[in-house]
From TrEMBL:
<protein>
    <recommendedName>
        <fullName>Transglutaminase-like domain-containing protein</fullName>
    </recommendedName>
</protein>
<dbReference type="Pfam" id="PF01841">
    <property type="entry name" value="Transglut_core"/>
</dbReference>
<dbReference type="InterPro" id="IPR002931">
    <property type="entry name" value="Transglutaminase-like"/>
</dbReference>
<dbReference type="InterPro" id="IPR038765">
    <property type="entry name" value="Papain-like_cys_pep_sf"/>
</dbReference>
<feature type="domain" description="Transglutaminase-like">
    <location>
        <begin position="85"/>
        <end position="147"/>
    </location>
</feature>
Length: 293
């Protein structure tokens, strides 16, 4: 039987390595913790600041230990001192979620990252997004450490869930894909942004596979590609994505057999599991095979 405690252990991406004491010093309370991790990362394209060269390349850091190493070169010896916006780690939602999950796991709190789409950044458009999810002893709770609570009408550390994508603040990729296949949503309203070409069925389908990877504790970059991930609708394996989306939804509903099937398929199907290498096609300009070991 799959238990939440599986997610209390570090993955190779959340393991802080020699920076474990920095995470030990952070609060385990999600609201206090979110206030810290929120202040560690500046979004690479969301603040009006232009990053180039080595600073932009920080978005490809991938591992918590590497993220913390970069931070500590600028701001030793703790993570709680305020960082000027332009000097923070250059990253995205995935990095805020990763650091939040890493800190929770360091304290023995089961936590994982969830890949999907947020309705709260653009009117009428769902932007791709990664947030944290933690086990409070009774249930899995969604938390977006990237948000300041004062700016939002919902609880950012207990984000409401719902099957109705028109009202839910956040929807998993599996929810979006399933609604798309049922004809319930316009999938072209799901992507990087309303003025960005990366959107639509291929993009949502990829995110189902990314959601699975993160659920199996491979918290990869949003521009890592492997196996069945594609760059065009015509190349998407609809049957595979349908199957994985259905299993993800069932597992979220408490179906332990679906959880076991996801684990088995991820471990044995090279279309789903990146193994030891991905192709990174990054906004930094990097386009290369990257070893994960």
């Amino acid at each position: 039987m799959t238990t939440p405690q599986e997610y209390a252990r570090h993955s190779r991406y959340t393991d802080p390595g020699r920076y474990g004491p920095l995470l030990d010093a952070l609060p385990a309370d999600i609201r206090q913790l979110a206030a810290v991790t929120n202040g560690l990362v500046v979004h690479y394209r969301g603040t009006g600041i232009t990053f180039t060269g080595d600073r932009l390349a920080e978005i490809d850091s991938r591992w918590t230990e590497r993220l913390l190493a970069t931070d500590q070169r600028r701001f030793p010896p703790s993570l709680t001192a305020p960082r000027p916006l332009e000097q923070r780690l250059v990253g995205c939602c995935r990095d805020v979620a990763l650091l939040t999950v890493a800190a929770l796991r360091q304290h023995g709190v089961p936590a994982r990252s969830r890949v999907g789409f947020a309705a709260y950044f653009h009117e009428g458009f769902h932007a791709d997004h990664v947030i944290a999810e933690y086990w409070d002893g009774q249930r899995w709770v969604l938390a977006d450490a990237q948000l300041d609570q004062a700016d939002w009408p919902f609880d950012t550390c207990d984000i409401p869930r719902g099957a109705d994508l028109s009202s839910a603040p956040f929807a998993t990729a599996a929810q979006v894909w399933t609604a798309h296949r049922r004809g319930e949503v316009d999938v072209d309203r799901f992507g990087v942004g309303p003025d960005h070409p990366m959107r639509g069925a291929w993009f949502a389908g990829n995110y189902v596979l990314r959601e699975l990877a993160h659920r199996r504790r491979d918290e990869l970059l949003l521009w890592d590609f492997w196996g069945a991930l594609v760059t065009a609708d015509a190349d998407l394996d609809l049957h595979l994505v349908d199957e994985i989306a259905a299993l993800l939804l069932a597992a979220d509903g408490g179906d332990d057999s679906a959880e076991r099937e996801l684990a088995h398929r991820y471990a044995t199907d090279p279309r789903l599991n990146p193994g030891g290498r991905v192709r990174c096609q990054s906004p930094s300009g990097l386009d290369a095979l990257v070893d994960l070991t």
